[in-house]
Amino acid sequence: MDTVKRPDKRAERSRRTREKVIKAARELFVAQGYGATSLQEVAERAGVAVQTVYFVFGNKRTLFKDVVDTSIAGDAEPVATMDREWFRDACAAPTAAGQLRAHVRGTREILGRVAPIMPMIAAAAANDPQIAAQWPAGPDPRYTVQHAAAEVLVAKPDAYPGLSAGTAADLLFGLLSPELYLLFVQDRGWSPDRWEEWACATLTAQLCTGARAGTDAPAHGGHASGPPEGSR
After folding, report:
1. Do 145 and 208 have their domain in common?
2. Do 160 and 47 reside in the same domain of the chain?
3. Which residues span the domain enclosing 61?
4. How far apart are CA 95 and CA 89, in angstroms?
5. 228 lies in some domain
6. How far apart are the C-alpha atoms of 213 and 159, rounded to whole Å?
């Protein structure tokens, strides 16, 4: 029995060590910047030897990317956003309004973790070409996620008639962006709850028929007029 349990205990210790280092690195990167933070400082804050940090992550750039990836996912599990339970549950909602409620709620959780580190990511990428290369030019992964959600949403009975997946994805991508979240929550002092209510009401007004959206229709007597359709 001991030989069976011991590897599990080692794996659990390794997981906890990894989480401690990532948490410490995130705190230091946000507080003093990527460039000004040494792995020695990260190790001291995490309560581990600096050799352990090198052994687990190899170098600071790899640790930085793991900090970003973990902030997006909420954990260190290698599971893509579209395979996450919250995303699948949102897509499984029987109505577009219900999907939007769950989708905005799940996105809010991600933005609460990611938005505060956006300035740190931008600064690190601007000063380190190898950091920038970790996110190569091409389709934004966020848009890929929003388009997948949009394809499911437009097929639901209360989706606005004639709404294309491309237009729905554009609206999800824009209104649920980290930049807009920061503008309202950080710059304008909105609470995350208020932002969530606004985002849900606005998207419901644009993407769902008013009669079917029901209580999800925009406040203050607004009516869902639907989004302007482009070429997509």
Report:
1. yes
2. no
3. 11-78
4. 12
5. no
6. 9
DSSP label at residue 47: T
On whether both 21 and 92 belong to a single domain, the answer is no
CATH code for the domain of 163: 1.10.357
Number of domains in the chain: 2
- As beta bridge partners, residue 208 has 159
Contact in structure between 57 and 21 (CB atoms under 8 Å): yes
Report the C-alpha gap between 203 and 206 in whole angstroms. 5
- Residue 44 CB: number of other CB atoms within 10 A? 14
Q: Which two tokens stand for residue 54?
A: 């090198």
Asked whether the predicted pLDDT for residue 149 surpasses 70, the reply is yes
The residue with tokens 């349990």 is: 5
Using a 10 angstrom Cβ sphere, with 0-12 exposed, 13-18 middle and 19 or more buried, the burial of residue 203 is buried
Q: Is the pLDDT of residue 8 over 90?
A: no
- Report d(CA 62, CA 70) in Å as an integer: 12
pLDDT of residue 153: 98
Q: Check pLDDT > 70 for residue 222.
A: no
| Rounded Cα distance, 232 and 229, in Å | 7
